[in-house]
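ENTRY TYPE: paired fold submission
RECORD: A
CONTENT: sequence, then structure tokens
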Amino acid sequence: MNGIPTRQQVESLKERYPVGTRVVLHHMDDPYAPVPSGTKGTVTYVDDMGQIGVKWDNGSSLSLVPGEDSFSKASEPEKTKISRGMSR
């Protein structure tokens, strides 16, 4: 997202990346970024500037900037619910 995002753009990001969403970083154009490509993390917030706060699995808490950083939702294996029959 280049420039200042509109309120509608920020709300759209909040809907798409709610707190708890798992993401994976593809590329961060920052030579000082401690988050390597392929690292997964959990969204902790979306601020009013449209930055997505992430708690990365490597311990970092660096935010993503849509339009600058390349990332996507992580595909998590679907959890299956096992139902147990009651025996008498």
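RECORD: B
CONTENT: sequence, then structure tokens
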Amino acid sequence: MEIRKHLHIVRRQKKVDWTQFLCGIPARDYIFQKEPYEEQITQASAYLKEADHVLIGAGAGLSAAAGLTYSGKRFQENFSDFIKKYGLQDMYSAGFYPFQTEEERCGYWCRHSYVNRIKPPALLLYQQLFDLVKEKDYFVLTTNVDHQFQKAGFSEERIFATQGDYGRIQCMKGCHPRTYDAVSMFAQMVQAEKDCKIPSYMVPKCPVCGGPMAMNLRCDQYFVEDEQWNEAAENYGKYLKQLKKGKAVLLELGVGFNTPSIIRFPFEKMVREHKNTELIRLNRDEAVIPESFGERGIGINRDLCDSLRDITIEIKKISADHLQDS
């Protein structure tokens, strides 16, 4: 299947060196905080209520808590044929499986995209998060590629998805700096798929070099940072400058130690360098906080659904109390 019969000229784009946003230095004084959960919720709610800016840092744990799990029952229900044929264990490792043909590889990825990006509506947890910050000067930095922030109502201009998008494809070798919307194509592939393969005529080819296409995911040196990606990176850079003005809260959600140099470590660096910045880290298992942050860091080790729900309830309570007092 041809993606484009005619490739439009790609205007020279402004390249953003995103390494300026990264940090590879972990803290040396991590601790699990011992404060009672209720006190942490109260303090986190107060920080968010008073914040001028809220920078959200979202990792895979957020989408997993929302319901987009990559293993177990959900994987078995959606990929039973792939499990039987290839012995796949989960959706994450399946992405690295050495399929022998393009028909098989595209058969897997169109299904993966459909199940995790195309079919799911805006999930409740993401909607609740949007309601929590929509009145604030917010921005989203995320390694998630499932488009849930956009579906939940977050402004496209306020999202920087650093690792790509399950709904876009690129030249496998990155021969030109452009990505392509593949949502409708993937939906058609899923309908035509048989025996874990798509028909040969549906296999996409690069419109420039004629080679195979791949998902626009940061998995090797050929990841394409297209014009839209660079615009998002530039918007993020501008937003970081705004954080220095007023009170800022870094709301980190489900970020572990898989790629900590993108969100976790840079967020900690911001807290160290800016006294007007506070960190709220929500993570079911890894909410460790540098002890040196003192009260400017809150690490809540609970299910994200519970934590965000309780913070939302507490903020509404604070608002109601303020109305009564006024």
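NOTES ON RECORD B: Confidence is low (pLDDT under 50) at residues 5-12. The chain has twelve helices and eleven strands.
STATUS: closed
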